Amino acid sequence: AEERAAELREELQRHSNAYYVLDKPTISDYEYDQLYQELVDIETDYPELITSESPTQRVGGKILPGFEKVEHDVPMLSLGNAFNKEDLLNFDQRIKRLTDDSVQYICELKIDGLAVSLRYENGVFQRGATRGDGVVGEDITQNLRTVKAIPLRLKQPYTFEVRGECYMPKSSFAKLNEERDEKGQEIFANPRNAAAGSLRQLDSSVTASRNLNIFLYGAANFDDLDVSSQSRLLEKLADIGLRTNPERRIFTSMEDVWSFIEEMTEKRTELTYDIDGIVIKVDDFSTQEEIGYTVKAPRWAIAYKFPA
Length: 308
Ligand SMILES: COc1nc2nc(N)nc(N)c2nc1C
Fold this sequence. Notes:
Helix content: 25-40%
Bound molecules: 7-methoxy-6-methylpteridine-2,4-diamine
Strand content: 15-25%
Number of strands: 11
Shape: globular
Strand order of the largest sheet: 2-11-10-3-9
């Protein structure tokens, strides 16, 4: 039974990764449910075989009295903002003054959700927290465990923190507000508020019902991963089972960055999730270190914000 339980956990994690992270299902829902039920039956007969990373343990039973405060191992930074092309050209000039490399920029979508940090220890999801003020956040582990795109065990036994944006897809937001409106409940103003409200639930079964998703974009204490740039970090995160956003591009000229921004300004309405800007970062990590940080934000990155 123990061997079969471990086999089922591994197979369910693989299918779950394919479906929720890669968006490429490998078996039918029916087949998945059969395997899942087999694991539930074994765990019911042998409760001592239940492990924290079993997919049957995603929705916690207990209702929390409140949220514990947690201090981030490495502070979660904020970003300087740009509002037009001139701001970006000025940013480019500042960067060129601080480094002589022919710098490469990586552009990533700025997802309009809630910034969270996930800590993995030896590949197992241990703790999830909100950004809070960047130094101290709130422990929302049991709510983040209900987000199916968050693997409870990575494909490699790494110990590090990943950062990303937890969000509610536009379709789930519309459906949730329709249901709330029908019940005479107050509706959410936008998907970001709905995601934040869904993650600040003391009862994780409510969170589980909200169909949240996540894109990871950064990490802390990730020496194990041995990556030399942001673009390689994102590839590595995807390789080990974490969900990253595919709409990312690398450019060497700010003119090309601007063309990408114009392209995404058009494409924005077709995305299945809200974005509030584009984040432009120096891609190479050693160049990032050379450029450094201000008191609260990296000097090597800027967030272009779409007009409200
Ligand atoms: C380097 O720091 C950051 N990088 C980011 N990248 C993306 N894609 N989205 C963000 N919201 C974001 N936020 C911060 C503070």
